[in-house]
Amino acid sequence: MFGAMENSLEIVKAWRGEKTERMPVWLMRQAGRYLPEYRALREKAGSFLTMCYTPEFAHEVTMQPMRRFDLDAAIIFSDILVIPHALGQNVYFVEGEGPKLDPVDFKTLSMRDGFLNPVYEAIRMTRADLPKNKALIGFVGGPWTLASYMIEGGGGHDFSKIRAFMRDRKPEFDALMDMLTRAVTSHLQAQIDAGVDAVQVFESHAGQLAGGYYAEYVVRPVRKIVQSLGSNVPIIGFSRGSSQDDLLRYAVDTGIDVVGIDQMTSISWAARNMPPRLSLQGNLDPETLKSGIGMEGAVRMIKEAVANRAHVFNLGHGVIKETNPDHVAKLVDLVHA
After folding, report:
1. What is the average per-residue pLDDT within 285-304?
2. Taking the model in full, what pTM does it have?
3. Active site residue 79
4. Which of 16, 34, 38, 42 is catalytic?
5. C-alpha pair distances (Å), 55 with each of 72, 104, 305
6. Is residue 4 one of the residues assigned to a domain?
7. Could you confirm whether 33 is annotated as catalytic?
8. pLDDT of res. 3
């Protein structure tokens, strides 16, 4: 699906399904609160969203881990909730509690023209500053995960609101999912046009659905996104918390190029059962990175499990904020060894 665009970076080759001599590595939430320089910039910016929407801040945060560690890719600093925000729903962050969203008014939802331009400017700035041998990743939240935040009003809930909405107001819910699918596609395409080398779809709440609902509200929208993009860059799908059966359906039916494996899924199972064309990404437990205990053995186990496949090393979820940066440096060395 990559057409005429060629990219010789090792990590891009791995995303495309090629076995590489040296295993590439990047980490979800590699730019974040575990770094003291991030915390200093966060205090200077005054708010999380100010950092997201100020290209200079977003560029700086993206580059911080790249200066510290020999990571093979940077991921642009942003947030999955910029899409609900751009659609007109008020989004804000409460210290110690995370994101909050005001009740959604479905009648007024509409993409605000130019609202996300700062994200694309940050990508252009970062691509110009990033070493040529490092890749740049763009990302979005998957439509189901975004809908969950929009209807629940934040994260960490029991998902009772969205389950009731999905069941009792299906036409409205389907319209919302269609709107989000279009918005996600547009946002990804704009990031590709700005210069990213790959994109990742974070379906962080996928584990809340199974069977037919999973097929309709996780698999189908991502398949539409992949088909609509027509891009020359690899598309990574991360369907967190899914059962093995659902994850395999997601990997096969969406058309993604890379399947992210979370820490709840056996990497050995994935290596045996995922179609050979697919590259794997994952799946060290973030708690292992945080503690640093047993990291050598865990890395060795993952590398042995995927020895015959294309693979990009990553965590099973994001870096935990209490993680010692020295543990990240050690991890990168272990993966590259």
Report:
1. 98
2. 0.95
3. yes
4. 42
5. 22, 27, 40
6. no
7. yes
8. 44
